[in-house]
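Purpose: get a first structural picture of the assembly so the mutagenesis plan has something to point at.
Setup: three entries, given in the order below. No constraints added.
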Amino acid sequence: MSSTASTSIVSDRAVELFKVAGLILLVAAFCGILLAATGVNPFRAYIQILKGAFGSLNAVAECLVYATPITFTALSVILCFRCGLWNIGADGQLYMGAIAAVGVGFNTIGLPNLVVLPAMLLAGFAAGAAYAAIPALLRLRFGASEVIVTIMMNFLASTFAIYLISGPWASGITPATPPIVPAGFLPILIPGTRLSANILIAVLAAAILTLVLSSTVFGFRVRTIGQNIDAARSAGMRVGRVMFASFAAAGGLAGLAGFGEVAGIYHNLPAGLSPGFGYTGIVVALLAKLNPMRALIVAVLLGALNVGADSMQRSLGVPVSIVTIMEGLFILLILAARLVERP
Amino acid sequence: MTIHSLLELTFWVSLLAAGIRIATPLLFASLGEAVAERAGLLNVGIEGMMALGAICGFLAAFASGNVWVSLLAAIGAGALAGLIFGLLTIVRGADQIVTGIVLNILALGVASFLYQSAFASANDVPQLALRTGVYALPWLSTIPWIGRALFVQSPIVYLAYVLVPIFWFLMERTTWGLSAKAVGENPEAADSVGIDVWRIRMQAIVLGGAMAGLGGATIAVAQVGAYVDGMISGRGFIALAIVVFGGWSPWRIALASLFFGAADALQLRLQISGIGLPNQLLLGLPYLLTIIVVVFVAGRAGYPAAINQPYRRRGLTILPKFFQRMTGATSNAAPQLADIRATVPVPKGGNQ
Amino acid sequence: MSVVAQNPPARSLSDWTLSARGVTKRFGNVLANSDVSLDLHAGEIHALLGENGAGKSTIMKILYGMIIPDEGAIEIDGRQLALQSPSDAIHAGIGMVFQHFMLVPTLTVLENLILGTDFAGRFVSRKSRARRRLAEVARSYRINIDFDRKVASLSVGEQQRVEILKALVRGARALILDEPTAVLTPSEIEDLGTTLRELAAEGHGIIIVTHKLAEAMNISDRVSVMRQGRRVGTWRTDTISAEELVVQMIGRDLDEVRLASEHRRSQKILEVKNVVAMTRRGLRGLDGLSLSLCAGEIVGVAGVEGNGQNELAACLTGLCRPDSGDIVFEGASILDRSTRDLLAAGIAHIPEDRHRDGAVLDFSLAENSILVDHGSAAFQRYGVIDRKRVTAFTDRLIKDFDIRCEGPGAVFKGLSGGNQQKLVLGRELARVPKLLIAMQPTRGLDVGAIEYVHKRLLDQRAAGMAILLISTELDEILALSDRVLVLRGGRIVGAVERAEATKDAIGNLMLGKSGMAA
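Result (structure tokens, whole complex):
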């Protein structure tokens, strides 16, 4: 049902990939110069990144582990953007999802073991959705800019998490809450690594989102509103309700990211749970051109970059922030080359 | 302090003084952002630009020992960041929100990288030895109560006092200001009377970036005396709210900044006093306030109509005039219909 | 502002010629102007006629420096101008008044007048300095506007006068007006004509770009016709007749206006009772409007743009709630029902701006064809869309309405205007509505497409559909309507049966000279 493509000798896709490859080289060269200026051999650094990312089973597992939460937040952003809304609040929704999951995870009074994990998942989704519902309501009722409100709510959520960790839910030992019950642990897929079934949930979520957007009535409404809100209104679509629903669902997806981190990795709620997963999710969503399945791939690539960077810092002492610079520079160049469309 | 100290005037005076101090970096960033928004540019990357200003100001202060050099360095860094934002959003038409977020990520990374590269070998956090000093203005500081709060401050605060009327003058009483307002509301109309939309927007965002850099440096150099990753902690985003709260007017923005500064100062005092409220509840206060403010003001004062809409004129070359002259694309021999300068309107009867 | 240096003036102030020579401009695949040559003399009013899409706007924007031509040149007295931007054109004495006014609504009249100039100073802006001189100029041209009012609060006619004044104070000798009468009432059109004739008498040269034949002939000294990107001819207005001009404009004779066959009026299907609706600006968009409509009839609502047409359509489709009064459809009030309910209950809507309200440009034809009915059982089950059925439905539409395209998967924006409108029309008709609200259904279409749409509407009328035709094109109203209602100032000021409907009768009602008082 989607539109037909243009024809030419060299396909548009090939040209695009060529441009992207060129930009990657450009970024690598520029950052290489930066590294050289601080006395590091850039080639050693880059090779160390690759070794660190793919050099062992554990490393590959870590790439997937990193990729999972940013896949969820990217899916959250994609759903919103398709509906014409900005979800800059994925970080905050992630925290609320994590808080809810942990809350269920050690307050499972009387719940049979089999139900704990699904309960945590549902709690995570619901908390994220509820937290997103607030800025959605404020936008729809009062016209308040969801950009500013969601950013503020990010800070509120992380502050609230710290409050819980330091206060009512303090464990006394680490800056984290006590652990959840073992029934709330997601099963590990590859023994000896941190890779849990979380990644499978992420893949499933991406697949479901793809189907919803392309083939359901709700998805049709979301896309119409995102493309042309006036036409949607004239056609009788209940714009406010659809926007609210998609924003809340997006919040739920981000909440799932929080659930995943709690159930899959930490098994408690640590301070500093999210080093900006929400914002990285925006980057992933853009690079994936708002396509859910592609977002998975981009997330894994970013995961590889970060895991490799950690290894590079450990063995060569190069600050990890060089990779942040590479990411940022790359996307800026992508924006400058107009390789992504305006949402 | 205790509950009783709320009744003492000295408490409020010292609160006002502290509020002004805390408000100053917010004010700098907000003044610049208001100008940028009036011209049609919404910059959510203020946070990153402030961080850049903080690190560049800190490094310059560390190296030179001079406050003003460090502020200049920060202004330069912020202006550069603003230039990049402008090139991407104005010339290449990228979405402003996305560009702002990406710039945040990049700027925070750059700041962190610079800091770690400069002090890789240091074992503890390097501190600035220099202090900006506090000066009492000769006659003004003797005004009872408010004189002590307003006019016994560091020179950077006095800079802020001076900048507010300057920004008001810029927007309301200069030709540039009028053009900027037009460009933000209806760029096509501005273009049709010969205003260079791109140039004005670039100038506005470079100014906005420079002011953000100044704000960041103020925090690092004048307040904390060191650089820490994440030290801006959301103030760049609060500036966005202050602009809305202040209705894009420099005077009201000053009041709004003071409001936030005072709230923050109050929170600090409550924290120290040990009055039984948990720390984090007070830390969250500015963010909550921002939400309330944005909801309250929304729908009344609106953003300029052309915000986040890149302006493109079909068929026109993108080269700036400089290159056009070089490539011979402009002829200097164009005849005119009449020797009328734009400043002399045509009198009725057509005799000239 | 402009890099163009000072130059010796043209031959004389009251005898110059501005011309375009061999101008060609392409936008992608579209050849907007093809070897166009045109000239304007001092003291003349030159009308440029042509249908929508003939290339008139393009050549005018080229004259004003907003668009750079691929080939050709703009000259004054034979010497070439280098126009890289409007400021170059302004400096050369060319001024333009756009169809969509180039005014900043939040600024005052004075601020809009001095925008982009140094009337008030180069850096510091001393408005009082500029005010005195500009007020003098305004007085001398008999344009009386309060300089301190915000432009947003002015009427359309007043805004246009500000635009003209804006061009004049910048030293415009040549004035280009793009569709100046599109949004004016007949009396404002007369005032404009007077002003223009005065300006011409003082040595200004004026080009009026329009698609309205009658106005062009009333006011101009010479008239040029453009068709499909070419200038097909220029004549002195007093040497050519309207019929010949029509032939030139469309390339063939217009068919005889079709007389609708006699119809039998059946029961009332829609009744609008004294509806009052405020616009966003707090003005009365609808001011006590009443009308009724029966099945099997076409009622045409005539009127100048901006007299309540948009508010009427919005109220009838549930997009806006009236502040008082009632609207009854098939015996039940629609006031509290949502757009979706009304559409499902048998109301269909062809919006005025099909790109904005009628379709999603980047969607495929199939997706656009189910824009309204995607939720019905015909196209979905349990919330999942049935692609096969949608494709089949779209195929049927393409066949029935002869839509030229590559298939249901083609992108909507790739179709021509006529085919786009056919899809929107087809989609609405396929829903077999009881009431169709058609706003400007043939705007922007070529003559062949217009005929097609008119024929389908008449067919549906014969089949018993009630059609409310809201249009600013009197010819269209006269060709299709059984009854004509005249809308002015938010209410119906007159009703004319088909037999008595003439342009004069309706025009008078629009002016308020006869029939019910406005």
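Chain B touches chain C through 53 residues (CB under 8 Å).
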